[in-house]
Amino acid sequence: MIRGLRNACLLLALIAVASVAVGFALQPTVIASPPFTGPNSENAHWQILGVIVHNVDVPYKTQTTLSARDIQIARARFTDLTHSLGNMSGGRLTADVTILEIHTPLTRLSPANATTGTNGYHASSAVVSDLIAEYVDKTDFHHVMTFLRLDIGNPWAGLYNHTLNGVHFSQIFFGAHNCNWHTQTAFPDQVLVHEFLHGLEYESKRAGHTPICIDTHPWQYQFGNGASGRRAFYTAMLSDPDFGFTRAALAR
Q1: Dist CA 252 CA 248 (whole Å)
Q2: How many domains does the chain have?
Q3: What's 106's domain CATH number?
Q4: In this prediction, what percent of the chain has a pLDDT beyond 70?
Q5: 166 phi and psi, to 5 degrees?
Q6: Which is more confidently placed, 207 or 52?
Q7: Mean pLDDT calculated for residue range 247-252
Q8: Residues in CB range of 44: below 8 A, 6 or more apart
Q9: Are strands 93-102 and 29-31 parallel, antiparallel or unpaired?
Q10: What gap in Å lies between CA 204 and CA 250, rounded to an integer?
């Protein structure tokens, strides 16, 4: 009896070690898009991989760990995103989010460049691929969105990096330098929507269409200031093909 119990404990320990070595949550969480039954409900559907990187441990640069509150916020914002994309597009575009929590530390970062600015570091697709490339290669995702904490002079709340092995890739940051975007309540997932729209810009260009640049367009003059104006601008980009994104961009 004691020997059998000892063997069972040993087996459980080995399973636990294997789980830590892999570094993935054993059961990724899937947040399905709310159903849409309007005239556009048969249109483009995206699969988003939401990656929550618990730890960053880069020697001589930074060591950060997401708090329980950070993780709660990240999960809530991914849920908000599934609602926002469907609602703001009028059902032209819907999305599911699969949340994957990574416990293996991120051990390297990419320096700033012409795209990311003149200061700081970021977690480019090249370095995040160390942790998730194998998982992405085995699944069918269209956009990978990564949450992590960086406190080393990075001024951005989010950053789009084009592709990870052919899949759109963006980063969402917790940190002292990114305006505390996660404390806003009027449009709490605006950073996620913004980075997702950068992926649609890329798809528009691939389809031969030059879209409005969401970073430079003076949307305040047409839609108003603050979170409500930004939401109205993004809604127009997603819902009106004459103003914003065409069907070709939404369909990838």
Answers
A1: 6
A2: 1
A3: 3.40.390
A4: 77
A5: 90, 0
A6: 52
A7: 81
A8: 92, 93, 94, 247, 250, 251, 252
A9: antiparallel
A10: 8
- Locate the DSSP E strands across 115-251: 121-122, 143-149, 158-164, 167-174
> 180-202 burial by CB neighbour count: b if 16+ within 10 A, else e?
ebbeeeebbbbbbbbbbbbbbbb
Is residue 32 one of the residues assigned to a domain? yes
Which residues, 6 or more positions from 24, have their beta carbon under 8 angstroms from its beta carbon? 100, 101, 102, 103, 135
On the question of pLDDT at 213 being above 60, the answer is: yes
Helix (H, G, I), strand (E, B) or coil at 105: coil
Percent of the residues in the chain that have a pLDDT greater than 90, as a whole number: 31
Position of tokens 């409500």? 228
Which of 54, 74, 73 minimizes the C-alpha distance to 64? 54
CA distances from 233 to 145, 180, 182, 250 (A): 22, 22, 20, 17
Query: Does 181 fall in a domain?
Result: yes
Identify the domain containing residue 225 by its residue range.
22-250
Q: How many CA atoms lie within 13 A of 2 on its CB side?
A: 0
User: Tokens 């069972």 appear where?
Assistant: 8
**Tens of pLDDT, residues 121-170:** 788 888 888 888 777 776 788 999 999 988 666 667 888 876 777 788 99
**CA atoms of 52 and 99, how far apart (whole Å):** 7
Residue 152 φ then ψ, to 5°: -130, 45
Q: 4 pLDDT exceeds 50?
A: no
Say how far apart CA 194 and CA 172 lie, in whole Å.
Answer: 10
Which are the contacts of 182, defined by CB distance < 8 A and separation ≥ 6?
73, 77, 174, 188
In a domain, 8, yes or no: no
Residue 167 CB partners (closer than 8 Å, separation 6+): 49, 136, 141, 142, 143, 144
